[in-house]
Structure formats: C-alpha cells, structure tokens
Write a structure and sequence with these properties.
The chain has 242 residues and is mainly beta. The chain contains two helices and 15 strands.
C-alpha cells in the first residue's frame, strides 16, 4: 500500500512550489476517515514554542515522533506514539517542564482513537487516562463539501475548548488528493487564534501531512503565545498482521 511520496512533503515546505488545481467540483462531498493497516508507521518532525508576553518564561521543543498503528477493532484504532527529543529548552517558570519532557523522551504512549481521529484514551505503561481530543484534527461525522464546517472538542492541558473546522479546498499534489482544513476556536474560551489553524490532510488515508498552530492561551492571569508545526517526514506501510 503506497501512502505518501517525499515530493508531497516537500511541496508544503517549499513556498515557491507551483500552484495546484482542484481535483473535483466544489459541490463534491468528502467523507474523511482514518484508514490503515496494522504496522503502518508515520514519522513527523515537530517544533513547539511557548512564551509569555515578556519572553521571561519560555518553553521550546524540537523532536521527531512516530505513530504506528498496532491494533484495529471496529471503529477504534490503537496507535503507538514515541517522541524523540532533538532539542528542549525552558526559562523562568517553565523550567520544571524540562524534567517532565525528558522523562517522556522515547517513552511509548498508546493513543486510542476512533476512525475520525479523535483521541479517546492515552495509555502509558499501566496508567490510562480518558481524553476528549488532542491538537490533531478531528473529522466530521458525515461527508462535507468545500466551504462546510464542523465542530469538535480539543483538550488544552486540563481544559477542554471547542474548535470549528472548515474544509477550504481539495487539490491534487504529487498525484494524491490533499485537503486543506482550517480551524478556529469558539469565542470566549481560554484559547484565541492568532492565525487560523491549518491542516493539510491526505484524503484517502485521513492522515495529517502538515499542520500549523498559532494561538494565545490564557490560564488565570497568565497569557501564553503557543506556536507549533508538524510535518510528515516519511511513512511506511505495514503488513496488516496483529
């Protein structure tokens, strides 16, 4: 099973890449679902930065994480995720986070998701924690047309906020249908968009190719700017064996 070509990734990293043309008419409907075979593995580069307005309290993380599909049952999937840190730094009140992330370095985490990409549970060793979502995109329950939108919850720390996604376009990049989806937080929540979240998604398999998030999160009297990017580096197909 072929998943992604390297040229597909480079197309998003190169801002001078040629423009693409819509593959279908705007009235076409798209049913987004995460699909795969046991053993499918996706490797991503990730870069995260958080800072207060004074820049006295900061946290920066650069690393590589892999998602491997280890089990499928009905509409649920178990993904083994491993983060390998390449760089981590913190200042001010963010410094205690260094110990937490260093402890998580190369530690497998099982993410239990449904086929719409929503994280339902996180498992680390013998510890299980229910979840209402993650920073990754959650797909709609039914098919949508270009311009249509849907809502989903997202966890930010111990809080849950609502986000509205909108299908902006579907184009052909490197021979594969690719959707551009944007996300905007609902008003009067702890999170406010600086820019609309942007996700590029492989339509046949429902996997994110790249994403960009830039928002301001307020907790009590603390206001933090949060910036994060994720880009698919490579992928390989599994053999479908449990």
């Amino acid at each position: 099973m072929s998943i992604f070509a390297l040229s597909l990734i480079l197309a998003f990293q190169d801002q001078t890449a040629p423009s693409t043309k819509p593959t279908t008419k705007p009235e076409a409907e798209y049913l987004f679902r995460v699909k795969g075979t046991v053993g499918d593995t996706y490797t991503y580069d990730t870069h995260f930065y958080m800072s207060d307005p004074t820049a006295a309290n900061t946290l920066e993380i650069q690393g590589v994480f892999t998602d491997t599909l280890v089990r499928q049952y009905e509409e649920l999937m178990d993904w083994k995720q491993v983060l390998s840190l390449r760089k981590i730094s913190a200042s001010g009140e963010m410094r205690p986070a260094l110990q937490i992330y260093n402890a998580a370095n190369n530690t497998p985490v099982t993410l239990v998701t449904n086929d719409r990409g929503r994280v339902l549970k996180k498992i680390v060793g013998n510890l299980e924690k229910e979840s209402r979502g993650s920073a990754n995109i959650v797909f709609p329950k039914k098919a949508v047309k270009i311009g249509e939108y849907w809502d989903a919850p997202v966890e930010i720390g111990t809080d849950v906020v609502d986000i509205r996604y909108q299908l902006m376009s579907v184009t052909n990049i490197a021979g594969r249908q690719t959707a551009c989806i944007e996300g905007t937080y609902f008003p009067d929540q702890i999170a406010v968009n600086v820019e609309k979240h942007q996700f590029y998604v492989d339509v046949p398999y429902g996997r994110t190719i790249s994403s960009k998030i830039y928002a301001v999160v307020t907790k009590g009297k603390i206001k933090l700017s949060v910036w994060a990017t994720t880009t698919l580096r490579e992928s390989k197909a599994g053999e479908g064996k449990s």
